[in-house]
Amino acid sequence: MLCLLCQQMDNRTAADYILHQSNIDASMRCTVVEWLIDVAEEFRFQRQTLFLCINVIDRFLTTVEMTRHQLQLLGVTAMFIAAYVLYTFILPSQCNTTQHCYYSY
């Protein structure tokens, strides 16, 4: 158990990772997170799915620099990963997902 705790401490995101992003700031991240909350409510995801999704986004942004146009795509991808990992829903059709993403950011 102690080993898992040590691994978790080593893999956490840095608090100031957003400062190292040249094209993304904290307000853009906040906008995407608010949008993901709406998506999670629309598809009736569990809270754990949303929290894991945000964790995936933060971990990815810690290591990769992105443009603001890719941020929503990252959010949707992280949501699918989180939902797949937690098995909380049946994957919505591509049409419904596209409808929620199109011009919403």
Secondary-structure map:
Blueprint lengths: L1 H9 L15 H17 L4 H17 L7 H16 L7 H8 L4
Helix pairs in contact: 2-3, 2-4, 3-4
**C-alpha end-to-end distance:** 41 Å
Shape: globular
Beta strands, count: 0
* Order of helix and strand elements from N to C terminus: HHHHH
What's the alpha carbon Rg, rounded to whole Å? 15 Å
Largest sheet, strands/sense/barrel: none
By oligomeric state, this entry counts as single chain
- Helix segment count? 5
Strand content: under 5%
Mean pLDDT: 79
Q: Tell me the helix content.
A: 55-70%
What would you call the structural class? mainly alpha
Low-confidence stretches: none
Structure description:
With 105 residues, this protein is mostly helical. It has a domain at 49-105. The chain is built from 5 helices and no strands. The protein has helices at 2-10, 26-42, 47-63, 71-86, 94-101. The radius of gyration is 15 Å and the shape is globular. The mean pLDDT is 79.
